[in-house]
Amino acid sequence: MGIIVNIAILIGLLVFLYFLKKKNVKFSNRVFIALAIGVVFGAVLQWIYGFGSETITKTMPWFNIIGNGYVKLLQMVAMPLVFISILAAFTKVTIGKNLGKIASIILAVLIGTTAIAASLGILSTAIFDLDASQIMQGESEVARGEEIVQKAENVKTLPEHILEMFPANPFLDMTGARSTSTIAVVIFAALLGFAYLQLQRKDEETANTVKKGVDAIYGLVMGVVRIVLQLTPYGVLAIMARTVATSNFGAIADLGKFVIASYAALIAMFIVHLIIVSLTGLNPVLYVKKVAETLLFAFSSRSSAATLPLNLQTQTKRLGVPEGIANFAGSFGLSIGQNGCAGVYPAMLAVMIAPTVGIDPFTPGFIAMLILIVAISSFGVAGVGGGATFAAIIVLSAMDLPLALAGILISVEPLIDMGRTALNVSGSMVSGIVSSRITKELDTEIYNDTSEKTSLV
């Protein structure tokens, strides 16, 4: 009976959100309302039934139809969007002139900020005096550690990992079959883009035909994106209700220091993003206001790939980044230089685990090596759930640290992963702003527009 009641209430709340849409309530306001309702609804469910109750366990699959279904629709368009976005970037005249410079700046910002994120992760671990041996490992932590060790058997060495980025079969990579599929698709699309530029110089008529085809497909894919994005409030409500209803608040309280330390590093890195924005001569407060909606979705969905459509729309419609640069920044940011998953998390984990094998993690040599490995290994980190674990395996293996302890934070992993994903997305948008600002292609009128008339859908 309780399951039926819970589902009925969810349907009622979804109808309420639809009613708000019919009343022309702004899209951003509906997203924030959905978030608040989802948190409250999830908290009430756990308060009534208790953590891990049978009723909640049986209710959540129905909630997942809305929440996970929405995320899957976004992931459905993510890979085609990455491919056509990169290819379309080459068809823009201004991009063709500054292509090398734009790509170099974006990569420099992504990798540079990842190195800074790793440094802040190390600093936070030191300030909060975190040590993996302080954490009591239960059955779930041990099981997670064993799972990570098994995964590590299939993980390549760092040189092999770099080689894995190359697309031997781009059609396979379009399915997202490999952890490095996203960067492989980016490389394949970029090669087609370079081929287009060569064709433009040799056969302008054929190149124009290709351009029309690419632009038409881009318009079609973006049409699908806009349709899916209209479902955002409903997806956010279901995702947050499920997240709160299934969260182990007891474990969160027990590992409070580790959660606080993680978020301290993530927030510090977000402040670095704001400093970078201000150094380009732009108002960082405006940046926060304009990206809040997108970061909120990244926070709730825990998927950089699913957030890509919102990421691109935010850059072009609200931040004034040209389409071509936004396409590069958003797509590169999916698998290169993820500040949260590939920067903060592996660095903190390495510093926490090192003392358990008698290594002092605060020697200059260890820190320098760790930051370097984090920066290099940030290439090819998957922009979906599990990317942080993949990055941690590579870093811990390269630093010759035990992998079994990588599962110690499994009980609070979802909570920390929410913040990491939001930071990943912010980093990619900052790289787009910096690149377009340096190349003098940023539309400052759009960036400074405070009328709040721009909608992402």
TrEMBL record:
The keyword Transport applies. The chain crosses the membrane at residues 5-20, 32-49, 69-90, 102-128, 179-197, 217-240, 260-282, 366-384, 390-412. Keywords: Amino-acid transport, Membrane, Transmembrane, Transmembrane helix, Transport. Signal peptide: none annotated. GO terms for cellular component: plasma membrane. It is a multi-pass membrane protein. This is L-cystine uptake protein TcyP. It comes from Ureibacillus thermosphaericus.
